[in-house]
């Protein structure tokens, strides 16, 4: 059985003094350290969240710039194709005009040469017929 005497009060007083000393020397510093670590973890989590949000914003901005660059590149390709098509068409039209002009020039030259040849042949034919007539008749006609 437990006897209640004066030693119990001394033991309770020693226990409370020990509890007070342990609280001051160990429990409160450890508790402060735990609270500081918890705060540091929360601060790092907030920083990580901020960095994550910034990274997401940067990724969205990058995607937007990439899409804009792709759109610009597509527009440039279309413009270059249109310009090339226009230039090819202009070159074709110019070449066709040059060919037409060259044909007309050659045709005119051939006709002029043909007319000269006809005149020369006509003169030669007249001279030949005159010579033949002179030889056949035996005198100058």
Automatic annotation (TrEMBL):
Sample GO molecular function, one term: proton-transporting ATP synthase activity, rotational mechanism
InterPro entries: ATP_synth_b/b'su_bac/chlpt (IPR002146), ATP_synthase_B_chain (IPR050059)
Protein's organism: Desulfacinum infernum DSM 9756
Subunit relationships: F-type ATPases have 2 components, F(1) - the catalytic core - and F(0) - the membrane proton channel. F(1) has five subunits: alpha(3), beta(3), gamma(1), delta(1), epsilon(1). F(0) has three main subunits: a(1), b(2) and c(10-14). The alpha and beta chains form an alternating ring which encloses part of the gamma chain. F(1) is attached to F(0) by a central stalk formed by the gamma and epsilon chains, while a peripheral stalk is formed by the delta and b chains.
Bilayer topology: Single-pass membrane protein
Name under which the protein is recorded: ATP synthase subunit b
Protein's job: F(1)F(0) ATP synthase produces ATP from ADP in the presence of a proton or sodium gradient. F-type ATPases consist of two structural domains, F(1) containing the extramembraneous catalytic core and F(0) containing the membrane proton channel, linked together by a central stalk and a peripheral stalk. During catalysis, ATP synthesis in the catalytic domain of F(1) is coupled via a rotary mechanism of the central stalk subunits to proton translocation. Component of the F(0) channel, it forms part of the peripheral stalk, linking F(1) to F(0). The b'-subunit is a diverged and duplicated form of b found in plants and photosynthetic bacteria.
Primary location class: membrane
Keyword Transmembrane helix: yes
Coiled coil feature spans: 41-79
Pfam families: ATP-synt_B
Gene that encodes the chain: atpF
Highest taxon of source: Bacteria
Entry's transmembrane regions: 6-27
Keywords: ATP synthesis, Cell membrane, CF(0), Coiled coil, Hydrogen ion transport, Ion transport, Membrane, Transmembrane, Transmembrane helix, Transport
Assigned protein family: Belongs to the ATPase B chain family.
Any one Gene Ontology cellular component term annotated for this protein: endomembrane system
Subcellular location: Cell membrane; Endomembrane system
């Amino acid at each position: 059985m437990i006897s209640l005497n004066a030693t119990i009060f001394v033991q309770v007083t020693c226990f409370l003094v020990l509890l007070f000393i342990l609280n001051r020397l160990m429990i409160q510093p450890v508790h402060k350290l735990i609270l500081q670590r918890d705060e540091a973890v929360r601060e790092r989590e907030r920083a990580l969240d901020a960095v994550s949000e910034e990274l997401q914003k940067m990724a969205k901005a990058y995607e937007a710039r990439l899409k804009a660059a792709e759109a610009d590149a597509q527009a440039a390709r279309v413009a270059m194709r249109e310009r090339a098509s226009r230039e090819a068409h202009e070159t074709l039209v110019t070449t066709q005009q040059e060919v037409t002009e060259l044909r007309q020039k050659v045709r005119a030259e051939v006709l002029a040469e043909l007319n000269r040849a006809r005149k020369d042949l006509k003169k030669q034919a007249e001279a030949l017929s005159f010579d033949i007539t002179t030889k056949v008749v035996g005198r100058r006609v």
